[in-house]
Design brief:
The chain is α+β, with helices and mostly antiparallel strands. Helices cover 36% and strands 19% of the residues.
């Protein structure tokens, strides 16, 4: 695709070639544009913005990266405090009745949409969302709701997979849990990379799945070890600590004679992606979804970076 210089328009959203929708905030006098990721709030100053034939944009490099909340945005704690106060003020019976009423209003607006009439679906969906969160406060069952929600989504995914004769999304329950976060790298995939990089260290492995003769186990904790001067292949656990692994790989990779290649999910809206990967490393997106050890299919597309 052709690329040409471009000045974004303030108040307009653009799809970024690296992933995610960015809203343009002020454009500075020298042509730099302040851009904010619509999903994560990551805000940066973009230098050398260009636009492609399909309307997507990118920039030569960025500075002043930071996370910002939208003006007036309430955080989760503030929202919970307001909803709890509503329950305390009007009581269980009144709020349950209100939830029933709001659901009926949403049903009416959905019927209006089906019949081609003007509707206020978004407003009623917001009202229902408020009431559902109050129901979790009243019945003290937020944990059960979350667990059952994830189970039902997994069952829905399985039905989609069965309906398409095995060609469905196959989200896999790992997407919804941190209990299973280790994914053994497919051997043929590793072998191809090894021919290019000649790895000599696997910092997060065990006796059954290590890819190099020298490796660190969970007990040894590769996050605490020195990778200096090594050619490292790292397929980190895809759980809550993945950000720590990415930061570790970045910092070790700045040492003389050290090469680090990571295989991680393609999550371009995460803080670690913007802090330690974007514009700092080579990125290769892996087509499709890899099948990991045991035949498990990755729930997310994968990305290599070094």
């Amino acid at each position: 695709m052709n690329r040409k210089p471009f000045t974004p328009q303030p108040g307009t959203g653009y799809w970024n070639q690296g992933g995610g929708t960015f809203d343009c905030l002020p454009v500075l006098d020298d042509g730099r544009a302040v851009m904010r990721n619509r999903a994560s709030g990551w805000t940066l100053t973009a230098h050398g913005v260009g636009i492609y034939d399909d309307g997507s944009i990118d920039w030569d490099y960025s500075t002043d990266g930071r996370f910002e909340e939208k003006q007036g945005q309430q955080d989760a704690a503030e929202i919970m405090a307001v909803l709890t106060a509503a329950v305390d003020t009007w009581g269980k019976a009144a709020q349950v009745d209100m939830a029933i009423e709001e659901m009926a209003e949403l049903q009416k607006e959905l019927l209006n949409e089906r019949r081609g009439r003007n509707n206020h679906i978004a407003e009623e969906m917001a009202d229902v969302r408020i009431m559902l969160q109050q129901m979790e406060i009243i019945f003290q069952n937020a944990g059960d709701v979350e667990r059952i929600f994830r189970e039902k989504v997994a069952r829905l995914d399985q039905r989609l997979h069965d309906r398409k004769g095995g060609a469905g999304v196959m989200v896999n329950s790992v997407l919804f849990s941190s209990k299973t976060d280790q994914w053994a790298t497919p051997q043929d995939f590793f072998d191809e990379l090894d021919r290019e990089f000649h790895f000599d260290l696997d910092p997060c492995a065990d006796e059954s799945n290590h890819k190099t003769p020298e490796y660190f186990t969970k007990e040894q904790d590769g996050l605490l070890q020195d990778w200096s001067g090594r050619r490292v292949f790292c397929n980190p656990p895809y759980g809550r600590k993945i950000g720590a692994w990415v930061e570790k790989a970045y910092r070790e990779g700045t040492k003389d004679g050290t090469i680090v290649v990571m295989l991680i999910p393609a999550r371009t809206d995460t803080r670690y992606f913007h802090d330690f990967i974007l514009h700092r490393s080579e990125i290769r997106f892996v087509p499709g979804r890899l099948r990991f050890g045991g035949g498990r299919r990755s729930p997310r597309r994968s990305r290599l970076w070094s």
